[in-house]
Amino acid sequence: MQQELTWAGPGQPRARPSSPSSSSSTSSSSGAGGGGGVRAAVEETPVVVVGRRECCMGHVVKLLLQGLGANPAVWEVDGDVEEAAVRAELSGERGGAWPATLPAVFIGGRLVGGLDHVVAAHISGDLVPILKEAGALWL
């Protein structure tokens, strides 16, 4: 897919897929299809945050990860149809229904969980080693 930049916030460009021909997978979803490519992004990118557009929880988890030095790819869903498509795509990966809430954080291709699980891993001191193992930090 070719990438077109949209603005995610002050000074933060975000890539959005605009056609089905590029191999880039660190992007937010757009259009009615919504789910296409999120599994590839999870498999190929060290840290992926899948969340609803303009959700404060997704923003908080992204800031936490950035504060630790990781640069998460953000895959945004806009509406129930896109969310269902993303959930269906990721459910196939897990072999059943995807129970996770959004935002969902994937590190090293594994579902870590929502904001609550990421914060708990951070407080317990487990998050930085997980990020290092996934290649998201070079400390």
From TrEMBL:
Every Glutaredoxin domain range: 47-112
PROSITE patterns (alphabetical): GLUTAREDOXIN_2 (PS51354)
Pfam families with a match to the protein in the record: Glutaredoxin
Region described as Disordered: 1-39
Residue ranges of coiled coil: none
UniProt KW keywords: Cytoplasm, Redox-active center
InterPro entries named among the record's database cross-references: GlrX-like_pln_2 (IPR011905), Glutaredoxin (IPR002109), Thioredoxin-like_sf (IPR036249)
Chief location of this protein within or outside the cell: cytoplasm
Localization: Cytoplasm
Gene Ontology CC annotation, any one: cytoplasm
Compositional bias (Low complexity): 9-30
Annotated Gene3D superfamilies: Glutaredoxin (3.40.30.10)
Extent of the signal sequence: none
UniProt entry tagged with the keyword Cytoplasm: yes
Family per similarity comment: Belongs to the glutaredoxin family. CC-type subfamily.
Protein name: Glutaredoxin-C9
Organism: Apostasia shenzhenica
Upper taxonomic lineage: Eukaryota, Viridiplantae, Streptophyta, Embryophyta, Tracheophyta
